[in-house]
Automatic annotation (TrEMBL):
It holds the Pfam family HTH_27. It comes from the Bacteria. It comes from Methylomonas subterranea. PANTHER family: ORGANIC HYDROPEROXIDE RESISTANCE TRANSCRIPTIONAL REGULATOR, TRANSCRIPTIONAL REGULATOR, MARR FAMILY. This is MarR family winged helix-turn-helix transcriptional regulator. Its main location: cytoplasm. The lineage of its organism: Bacteria, Pseudomonadati, Pseudomonadota, Gammaproteobacteria, Methylococcales. Residues 3-142 form the HTH marR-type domain. It is found in: Cytoplasm.
Length: 194
């Protein structure tokens, strides 16, 4: 598989997961960045639980992190503690509610389901593994695949021309490389299943 196609599969999987993440956080009045802050604080040590460390790890501005921390503190998901040796340093830690929220929201349920379905299979390339993972994630999430025409169940080659089996219309060569919202993925070849 071409490197650009592999990159696009990774990008599409990421987009799907971000969309699901946004829905989950919106349901509780938070943004994904708030979840990222909580997740980081759940796994960092006592030397790395400061505003600056959060900003550096997430690649965000100090202002964005500061606003996020204020919101999370207001919602009682984290608490601030002044360093006992250096009063200028403020440490951040999760409350019980913050820990429970991290456990509840990560990892995403759809990813866990996809992992269960794909983990026992062997693939001949990373591209096939990613395509299968994406297809399973889309199925579990009940979202459209928006795949390329030529990889669709409806795609046909009839009398030396391309045709959409759903509409019975002829397709131009350029159409076969473009994505379609009515795409239904063809099953991917799997090398070995246990």
């Amino acid at each position: 598989m071409h490197e650009l196609e592999t990159f696009k599969l990774i990008e599409r999987i990421s987009s799907l997961l971000r969309s699901e993440e946004r829905k989950k956080y919106a349901a509780i009045g938070l943004q994904p960045v708030h979840g990222q802050v909580l997740e980081y604080l759940a796994k960092c040590n006592r030397y790395s639980n400061t505003h600056a460390s959060v900003a550096e790890y997430l690649g965000l501005t100090k202002g964005t992190v500061s606003q996020s921390i204020q919101i999370l503190e207001r919602k009682r998901y984290l608490q601030k503690t002044t360093d006992s040796l250096d009063g200028r340093v403020v440490h951040l830690s999760l409350t019980e509610a913050g820990m429970a929220l991290v456990d509840e929201l990560k990892p995403l349920d759809i990813f866990k389901q996809a992992e269960r379905e794909v983990s026992h299979q062997e693939f001949d390339s990373i591209g096939n593994a990613l395509q299968t993972t994406l297809s399973v994630l889309q199925k579990v999430n009940q979202s459209k695949s928006f795949g390329m025409c030529r990889s669709c169940e409806h795609f046909r080659v009839v009398a030396h021309h391309y045709q959409c089996g759903m509409t019975d219309e002829a397709l131009e060569r350029d159409d076969t490389d473009k994505i379609c919202r009515d795409h239904i993925p063809k099953p991917n070849p799997v090398i070995n299943q246990e």
